[in-house]
Amino acid sequence: MLSGLTTGNDRVALRFGAESLTYGELASVTGPIAAGLAGRTRVAVWATPTLRTCVAIVAALTAGIPVVPINPKAGSRELAHIVADSAPDLVLAEPDAALPPELDVLPRLPVESDVSGTPWRGDEPDPETPAFVIYTSGTTGPPKGVLLPRRAVASNLDALAEIWGWTGADVLVHALPLFHVHGLILGVVGPLRRGGSLCHLGRFSSEAAAKELAGEGTMLFGVPTMYHRLAADCEADPALAAGVGAARLLVSGSAALPATDHERITAATGQRVVERYGMTETLMNCGVRATGDRRPGAVGPPLPGVDLRLVDDDGVPFEAVDGETVGEIEVRGPNLFLGYLNRPDATEAALRDGWFRTGDMAVRDADGYVRIVGRRATDLIKSGGYKIGAGEIENALLDHPGVAEAAVTGEPDDDLGERIVAWIVPAEVKPTADELADHVASLLSPHKRPRVVHYLEALPRNEMGKVLKRALHG
Ligand code: MCA
Ligand code: AMP
């Protein structure tokens, strides 16, 4: 799975601020942890944006034990669900990390940085075994655990390497969270599979990204919100723009990059952003080639090895490449997940004859480029690159004593892409917007909190009692 993990290899594998590990050191540090994991079924990793989190991930990957990465800001209900559903044998965390009660009940293996350890010598595990269980939101209900096999991770990273000329000479820069596909699989396993380096910024800032790209950094991975902020900062500061412009490749994904931000980055830095499109269940499906036409609003052709088709409302595939006929994207290939953990019903519903139904609506241009134009489900919100289900937030809001009725929508937002908006019919004591935001943040996650709250006397409903979300706009 990972190349270069050998004693004596002095190439820097991972760098977080002043802390770094070479490949040789990483092999030594992870060896004893991997040995301590042998025979386990599944392990949770407390996924703070730190070097130790990467050490934990590498140890589990080399030992062949599936990892459940945990958002360290996850609230009580979300955590309880993930822990109960994935049933990890133990949790890997920094020795001094204060874990919430939901995780503290599990046995704990501390992630130490002992560079005198013996590297792991086990065989490469079966490619069909799960490497990760990553939780992702649906329109309703709690998040589902996506079982990602080693085969999907390896083949997808190799396809990305092929289209971007990504090699061991690259130094990837990013500030993505380490509990989702983008930051974890593309952003950590990606560089380690190539034998290259990761420079993680801890938290995103344009200054930090520009500084690294002006130096050794060659590639930047980010969500559109980061590129939106980068565009404004590059326009304001030519030195910063020059730093970003020195990158070999700027890559955006997880949500649509608005054409205006794409053009602003180009005008300020001379660089055209490359877009790629993926999902937790499928990893990456499409990507603009490093040598290809980097046109705004397009996610490029399918990746090598990935089959992609568009289907009409009846599920019938069509061939039109007129840039106009809209269909739902279905994909097939070695990039696909194994299924949702404990949810055979949801797995079956997501697949049609071996094709994964993405729910994303797109058109295809004559040169094979895919352009995403929308999403089938209005109850899925993408905010800051995070996928968030409206139903999950509505349920959390309804648990607040001050809420009689609740509906949640996504509204366009220049910075976040979409912002979460709550429509509330208050009970006797009307809660403030901050109270409701804190309530959702503590039960679910801070990124799922409503950014705007509207108070209504009643929600608009049809004769069946179903909320008419289209009638809700502020
Ligand atoms: C705010 N905070 C709170 C509250 N309000 N905490 C508790 N209670 C509250 N009421 C905290 C937050 O936790 C955060 O802490 C800080 O205040 C700021 O929060 P927020 O405003 O939400 O952050 P932001 O600055 O707006 O974040 C923007 C961001 C972030 C950095 C772009 O959205 C982000 O990292 N997005 C990446 C999402 C991603 O990786 N998606 C990939 C999914 P603190 O400051 O400590 O953080 S994978 C995927 O989509 C597919 C596979 C794909 O194609 O990639
Ligand atoms: P997630 O479930 O968090 O993995 O999010 C996957 C979803 O993110 C996809 O189904 C798309 O709706 C969206 N997405 C990812 N990359 C892009 C992109 N480049 N352009 C538009 N939407 C994207």
Automatic annotation (TrEMBL):
NCBIfam families recorded: PRK07787.1
Name of protein: Fatty-acyl-CoA synthase
InterPro entries registered for this protein in UniProt: AMP-bd_C (IPR025110), AMP-bd_C_sf (IPR045851), AMP-binding_CS (IPR020845), AMP-dep_synth/lig_dom (IPR000873), ANL_N_sf (IPR042099)
SUPFAM superfamilies: Acetyl-CoA synthetase-like
Span of domain AMP-binding enzyme C-terminal: 392-466
Gene3D superfamilies listed in its UniProt record: 3.30.300.30, N-terminal domain of ligase-like
Family: Belongs to the ATP-dependent AMP-binding enzyme family.
Residue ranges annotated for the AMP-dependent synthetase/ligase domain, each copy included: 9-341
Transmembrane regions: none
